[in-house]
Amino acid sequence: MITFWGGANEVGASCMLIEIEESRILVDAGIRMGPGQDTQLPDLTALERHRGRFPDAVLLTHAHTDHTGALPALECILPAGVLTYCTPATKAITKVLLEDAVKRQRREGEQRGEEPLYPPEAVPAALARMVDVPWREPVPICGGALTATWIPAGHILGAAMIYIEGQRESLLITGDVSVANQRTLPNLDVLPTGCRPDVMVMEATYGNRQHKNRAEQEFALARDVAETIAAGGKVLIPVFAVGRSQEVLLVLKRAMQRNCVPEFPVYVDGMVRRVNQVYSDFSAELTSSLRRKVKRGEDVFYSKTIRPVSSREESDSILSGEPCCIVASSGMLVGGMSSYYAEYLVQAPKNLIAITGYQAEGTPGRALEQERVWTLDDGTSVNVACKVTSYSLSAHADSKELTGLVQPVQPRKLFLVHGDDAARAALAEAARSAVPNVEVTLPENGRVYSVREHPGISRGKHFANDRILAELSDHLLQIGYTRSFAAWELAEMWFGTSAMTRLKEAFLQWCLSLDWRFFARDRDVFYRRRQA
Q: Does any domain span residue 459?
């Protein structure tokens, strides 16, 4: 079974519980990035309501905040001994992101009186749970009951697809993937020989579109930046600190080194600086050309024209100084230094704000990109006078690339997550057309999805309530399941997956309430088979 607590029908708060062969695995624990959300966290309260359903292990696909930002909140309710498995680079980047989040929450608490999502001490505790995993090697988890293999997914440093195998069942979770090569990283790796999972959970961020030619978009960005600066303006490139910022810096650096554009000053501000250092520390995982530069002693991202900003005073002097380009986090302009710079640059027609990444619904970046509106700190909105241009430099696979990923895998069931309704619906149609035998599901947050098809013990026959419960009890004994079950799970076993309705679930609940000889109530809404 798979329970989606966040990130199913949205981009943000990715978090799913996988129950496979008596083991429970939580994959990712992210937050929602846009302001004005009802809650930034996935539904972690489900863990508190049903303590017996705590995961045996936590697995991380990659470090982006929409996949890891809730780890400290999870730390506050997770029992001791539950380990978090991830690649070493993911751990290093997550440390940077979470430590920055603590500072930001403290600052916002002082300025706006907002309560933090978690206490500061939860961050080092969450980091202490993390266990490094190797690439491409099966790692025993859940006491050796399962294995998990981390396969390079492109996207950002340390990002992985995770292949989980049990004795009878298997599934592949793509996380966020990049099929095309990037300037920092190779594209996703090939799946292991014989990787034919029963279930595949795949992102659908760009499921309804195809990317523009990458080389042309990179040249257009460098050209527009150079032309804006030559005309006396300033350029702000708001970037995700992890992944996009490094790509943008290399695009600009390469264009100037090859004399595609005149040299111009580039200032790097915000959390981008710390993440650049992590990328340099893991140079063995970068592209071959970058590895060669590191061996020659070259700096990966900086040069005589590209340099980091050292203080807020320097940031202010950049705003009042000569024309230049500023590369700053955050990518959706939700706080961070990019928001600070935008406040000053949006009202001058000679300036340019270059959008290079996905802008989630409700974020300042989405309002700027689509509505040309910027909201000041006091809540008033101003019309944007500067140029706002978008460039397709995505680190997510597009519709055609994602469909091509499903074809060789041929899963029995495909869940499409991490996308809006339009993107997921379009990708579902493309996947069904390309792989007719696959069953495609568009899950919703808060829903539980049974992967195994129950034929139904009843086989359409009608029995008294005590006979129903007795046969269910015998069935669980035969298959060796000892965990607790929700009423709907028992109803699905009895009637069959295809025949399930809410009325039948209510009927089974009624049967359980009449006779306590076979099942005992466990944790309020769950039932455990009584031992003979």
A: no
